[in-house]
Amino acid sequence: MELTRGLLIIWIAVTLLSQNSSNVEGRNHFHKKQKNKRPPPKVPSPQAPVSPSPAEPPPVPSDPNNPPYPPPAPSVPSDPGSNCIFDVTAYGAVGDGSTDDTEAFREAWKAACQVESAVVLAPADYTFMITSTIFSGPCKPGLVFQVDGVLMPPNGPDCWPKSDSNKQWLVFYRLDEMTFTGSGTIEGNGEQWWELPCKPHRGPNGSTLPGPCDSPALIRFFLSNNLVVRQLKIQNSPQFHMKFDGCEGVLIEKLSISSPKLSPNTDGIHIENTKYVGIYDSVIGNGDDCISIGPGCSNVDIEGVTCGPSHGISIGSLGVHNSQACVSNITVRNAMIRDSDNGLRIKTWQGGTGSVTGISFENIEMENVRNCVIIDQYYCLTKACRNQTSAVYVTDVSYRNIKGTYDVRSPPIHFACSDTVACTNITMSEVELLPHEGELVDDPFCWNAYGTQETLTIPPIDCLQDGEAQSTAESSAYGC
Ligand SMILES: *[C@@H]1O[C@H](CO)[C@@H](O)[C@H](O)[C@H]1NC(C)=O
Ligand SMILES: *[C@@H]1O[C@H](CO)[C@@H](O)[C@H](O)[C@H]1NC(C)=O
Ligand SMILES: *[C@@H]1O[C@H](CO)[C@@H](O)[C@H](O)[C@H]1NC(C)=O
Ligand SMILES: *[C@@H]1O[C@H](CO)[C@@H](O)[C@H](O)[C@H]1NC(C)=O
User: Fold this and answer.
1) Residue whose CA is at the smallest distance from ligand 1 atom 10
2) CA of 329 to the centre of ligand 2 (A)
3) What residue's CA is closest to ligand 1, atom 8?
4) 205 lines ligand 1 (CB under 6 A)
5) What letter does residue 58 receive in the DSSP assignment?
6) Is residue 452 classed as helix, strand or coil in its secondary structure?
7) What pLDDT, in 10s, does the model give residues 233-263?
8) Mean pLDDT value of segment 56-61
9) What CATH number does the domain containing 378 carry?
10) Does residue 73 lie within any of the structural domains?
11) What are the boundaries of the signal sequence (predicted)?
12) What is the pLDDT of residue 309?
């Protein structure tokens, strides 16, 4: 029964595909297989992710007119309006946790891509292992990639196929109206990547050794619009868990992301060059930024997020290598940050231009957080960065109802603004932070920061200057 239905779906899919191979990825794929030519076509953008490169030629026959699966006899009219399910097990996925199921996922994707509102299903009670894969569009709208079982990459650098990019694992590329969801788990198998001797303190005797250190981001969305990511459990990523670049319209909700506190560079959600993003009702614990917002982001709304352990919610770093960065209209509300190295952070490098403007942090609870509120315009990884005269301009930043406890190893409030480009219009209202343990740190730090306190801040800050800065950037917001 189950098998018959699966075969039927495959047959429909194959028929559709051979009748209407408008999908570029699919077409390329078939050409590639027919000519058995390698390497596969590169994705057509200089910034594009590295192309998928299966180490072995696929074992299945390749002629689309001669599908590898026996086409069933009955002719059923296809109904692209209904939710067609493309179950990867019907495409040969084994799901025993060790068999390489990559080809089955690619075939299921390729078929589903042709059908409106199709579902690529990785069913419950299976553990699928696939290698680095780019799931490309354009596809028909409404495509759903649903993981109800476990989906994971090869276990660690030694098992990573040499021909695959080690900078990314799952990539979703050039899609519109796509949903990534499921009741299952994306298991990153990150442990061996975190232990590479090049990672901080992972060499012999706690040293850090030089050498290439690339580790894959687990899930990447690239040049795609109107995305929904919902409900999944995503854990133990080798590097960033989830990354969005060049996207517009992203809704993330009810996610659970977790990696250990000491896993290096495992940012939870990173966005850059991405606009109109909502991140809601999610729980993130990891070894780096909980959420990081890079250059080119605007209209980002974050609400109901719990972070910890983590490095907090971060805007930046911005302006590296004298680049221009524009970030605007970011709201973070009703969030909880606990056991974190930073709370709410804006970090920019010396040099650089652009601006960070219209940032609102409201109703944030802190528990045992270092640097609860920090603007750092001297961000530098080597401690050897020269001071420069240009800087990303930080303005219109408000902190309202920020309460809780801080880790006394660093002051809870720290505004280190550029010497030449002051931070302006910082509003503080009901910011009340107490030591988690030990003595009050009574010296909040401010340098070249202007703004107002609507209520008395705890600990008191007397360094936030009233009035206009002497040397503020032009109101053109520094080129943005
Ligand atoms: C690590 O430290 C121990 C004790 O200090 C020393 O004997 C050993 O040689 C060190 N190993 C390396 C690889 O540096
Ligand atoms: C700010 O972003 C929100 C979405 O988070 C959007 O609804 C709103 O219109 C934006 N405001 C401005 C002034 O662009
Ligand atoms: C850069 O400027 C800051 C603020 O004036 C100062 O504290 C710091 O020592 C300077 N750093 C260098 C490397 O000159
Ligand atoms: C200061 O920033 C707030 C947002 O925090 C904004 O509403 C207000 O217009 C800004 N004031 C000035 C004088 O730019």
Assistant:
1) 205
2) 6
3) 205
4) yes
5) -
6) strand
7) 999 999 999 999 999 999 999 999 999 999 9
8) 36
9) 2.160.20.10
10) no
11) 1-26
12) 97
